[in-house]
Design brief:
A: alpha+beta, 6-stranded antiparallel sheet, 7 helices, B: 202 residues, 43% helix, 27% strand, extended
Chain lengths: 188, 202
């Protein structure tokens, strides 16, 4: 009877345990939880890109022969998340608050603010999560572009500081293209 | 005077009858299932369609589902035809494809786009798929899903949902990307195909 009871208990617990295991997505170092976004009303645009490791590895295979350095860089990336949310009268203040709270959270969690650019209504913040001095574990770009849109970018992986510019060029992240890597900054 | 039927002969007759019955039931069933599969969507694609239909009713216009057997046959036939390299590679890579086109009865209100995405995400997550792309602008909505597990160069699978004004398109494809990869490598320029200029205007 005891055996039957414990077997039944196992049967009951197993799916719950398995379900929990499936749902518990491991948070990678350098990963930022921007929260969920949903398309705004009106004609405002909404773009969400969430590239997992499997897809990034496949992308690396495309360039590994012609550009092995780029393939190596892409292979080091574990996840890419991009959110572009168009601003409307309904969501403007909410998005502005979200940008502020993400920035505050990043700073409080030890992310290094690499650059802040305020130009023509654009407010760009670039943050890095460093593992020691040599490796970047995560990169976050948070932008509020006047009345147009809010942008959240998070790149997770092992990135070398000198690869940041290449990464900006490859992923078309404008603020990263002209960035001075942290090491170079220190040297200066 | 009734001659007793030999038990072995009776057994044989029963077996023959069962075979006939089985053939009479199984063959037509197989044929019906095979034929209807061409005009029915798979589970994931149907779930995507239903997430839109829950918000906006739509009428079916076209549904085509081409499975592995048909594509395999096409591959064999293509072996005897002189085709451009791209077409041959494409057919060689494809494993299965399905597409459904529907006419939405009334335009979807813009604030319902979020509901559609939410419902589609839920339905696909249940099946072990995750959304990698979501784009919404004006009357257009695009969502692309890939499986959370088992995605590799040799086993590329994806599902796509497109709403364009009053038109709904759901599609899914399964392919072995190895050949395509080689072809793309040959023809690729400097830009990376999978990472578009999403934040180019920052």
């Amino acid at each position: 009877m005891k055996r039957i009871k414990s077997f039944a208990a196992c049967l009951l617990i197993m799916p719950v345990a398995l379900g929990m295991n499936l749902r518990a997505d491991p948070v990678l170092p350098g990963q930022v939880d921007f929260g969920a976004f949903s398309p705004p009303g009106g004609a405002a645009e909404f773009v969400e890109v969430n590239l997992p490791t499997s897809l990034i590895s496949l992308a690396a295979r495309f360039v590994e022969k012609e550009e092995p350095d780029v393939a190596k860089l892409i292979n080091g990336i574990k996840a890419v998340r991009v959110n572009v949310v168009g601003l409307t009268d309904e969501n403007r203040s909410q998005m502005t608050d979200r940008v502020k709270s993400v920035r505050t959270e990043l700073t409080s969690k030890g992310w290094e603010k690499l650059a802040t650019v305020m130009k023509e209504g654009q407010d760009v913040g670039v943050y890095l999560k460093m593992d020691g001095q040599s490796v970047i574990q995560g990169l976050a770009v948070v932008v509020i572009d006047g009345n147009k849109h809010a942008v959240f970018v998070n790149i997770v992986g092992d990135i070398k500081p000198e690869q940041l510019t290449t990464l900006g060029e490859r992923l078309h992240i404008e603020p990263l293209k002209n960035l001075v890597p942290p090491e170079a900054k220190v040297e200066k | 005077m009734n001659a007793a039927i030999h038990p072995r002969r009776a057994d044989g007759f029963v077996r023959f009858l069962s075979f006939l019955l089985a053939a009479g039931v199984l063959v037509p069933t197989f044929l019906v299932v095979s034929v209807t599969r061409y005009i029915r969507l798979g589970s994931e694609t149907a779930a995507l369609r239903d997430s839109v239909l829950a918000v906006a009713p739509a009428k079916k216009r076209v549904v085509v589902n081409v499975g592995g057997m048909t594509i395999g046959l096409a591959r064999i036939i293509c072996g005897f035809i002189d085709l451009p390299e791209e077409a041959r590679t494409g057919i060689g890579a494809a494993r299965a494809a399905e597409v459904g086109v529907y006419q939405i009865e009334n335009s979807i209100p813009v604030h319902d786009r979020g509901v559609i995405v939410q419902k589609a995400d839920q339905a696909m997550r249940k099946r072990g798929w995750e959304r990698i792309v979501g784009v919404a602008k004006d009357q257009e909505l695009v969502a692309v899903y890939i499986p959370q597990k088992g995605f590799s160069e040799k086993k590329v699978r994806c599902c796509v949902l497109v709403v364009h004004d009053r038109e709904l398109v759901v599609a899914a494809a399964r392919a072995n990307a190895s050949g395509v990869l080689e072809l793309v490598r040959k023809q690729m320029g400097q830009e990376h195909p999978l990472l578009p200029p999403l934040v180019a205007n920052l």
